[in-house]
Amino acid sequence: MLGVFLLIIGFFMVNQIIFGFYQKRHSFFEKKKMNLLYLYHLVFFAVYLWYANNNASDSRGYFNFLLRYNGGWLETFGTDTKFINFLSYPFYSVGFSYEMLMLTFTWFGFLGFMYAYMFFRELIPIKINV
Fold first, then answer.
1. Does 115 map to a domain?
2. Which of 8, 90, 101, 123 is 20 to 30 A (C-alpha) from 50?
3. Does 64 map to a domain?
């Protein structure tokens, strides 16, 4: 569990570097909003982690594959489930636990949301107040 907390802090620090870059480049980019989005993703990481630990989960199956796998990284390359194994293998091979892998994929999802927000914000210049 210590690894998860270190990753949360590490990803937060990397986020601040990324946010600083985009804040200088785009006047609409708000660090506070992106930090809240990161927190939102962490909450759902915790919810899904609880769910996966108490119910059947595909993510648990992917991790169990890694526990049993004896081959090389490039042999895991492929489509469908194999691609998830291909993405997970390097992290697992350096010692990531199931929870750390889940957090890493949560962070990838967060980056996807951030870039989608920026994409639409650039293409739709209308200021909408919520």
1. yes
2. 90
3. yes
Report yes or no on 51 lying in a domain. no
* Residue 95, Ramachandran bin (φ over 0: left; ψ between -120 and 50: alpha; else beta): left
81 or 53, which is more confident = 53
Residue-wise burial string across 44-60, b where 16 or more C-beta atoms lie within 10 A, e elsewhere: ebeeebeebeeeebebe
Q: 3-state secondary structure string, 66-115?
A: HHHCCCCCHHHCCCCHHHHHHHHHHHHHCCCCHHHHHHHHHHHHHHHHHH
| Structure token pair of residue 114 | 């951030």
Lowest mean pLDDT among 7-16, 40-49, 73-82, 121-130: 121-130
Task: Give 5-24 pLDDT, tens digit per residue.
Answer: 999 999 999 999 999 999 98
Domain span at residue 113 reads 58-123
How many domains does the chain contain in total? 1
> What average pLDDT does this structure show over 33-44?
94
Question: Per the domain annotation, does 10 fall within a domain?
Answer: no
The whole-angstrom separation of Cα 115 and Cα 117 is: 5
